[in-house]
Amino acid sequence: MSTSMDAIRDLAERDYKWGFVTDIEDEQIPRGLNEDIIRIISAKKNEPQFMLDWRLKAFRHWVSLERRTPSPPGPT
Questions:
Q1: By the 8 A CB rule, do 20 and 2 touch?
Q2: pLDDT value, residue 2
Q3: Residue 49: what pLDDT?
Q4: What whole-number distance in Å separates Cα of residue 65 and Cα of residue 56?
Q5: Would you say 52 and 38 are in contact if contact means Cβ atoms under 8 Å apart?
Q6: What is the pLDDT of residues 10-59, one digit of tens each?
């Protein structure tokens, strides 16, 4: 049993010999949604200024709707 586990571990830990490598770019964006997050996403997508302005206007409208709508009562 330990011989097969050793063989599996050896296969999993050795370098890939065929030369195929994929470099994956990783970018961390904080959780939540606010104007800064919208700007980061828009810049990442290389969107034109009018699109960013449209998204920010829509976000501000959504926030204003959220403020006007009363929250449901919490559990008692």
A1: no
A2: 73
A3: 98
A4: 14
A5: yes
A6: 888 888 777 777 788 888 899 999 999 999 999 999 999 999 999 999 99
More confident of the two residues 56 and 70: 56
Dig out the tokens for 63 from the structure.
């926030």
* Residues recorded for the chain: 76
Q: How deeply is 52 buried, as exposed, middle or buried, from its count of CB atoms within 10 A (0-12, 13-18, 19+)?
A: middle
As a whole number of angstroms, the distance between CA 25 and CA 37 comes to 18
Encoding tokens for residue 54? 């449209």
Q: What is the DSSP string of 5-29?
A: HHHHHHHHHSPPTT-----------
Instruction: Give backbone dihedrals phi and psi of 26, rounded to 5 degrees, phi first.
Output: -120, 130
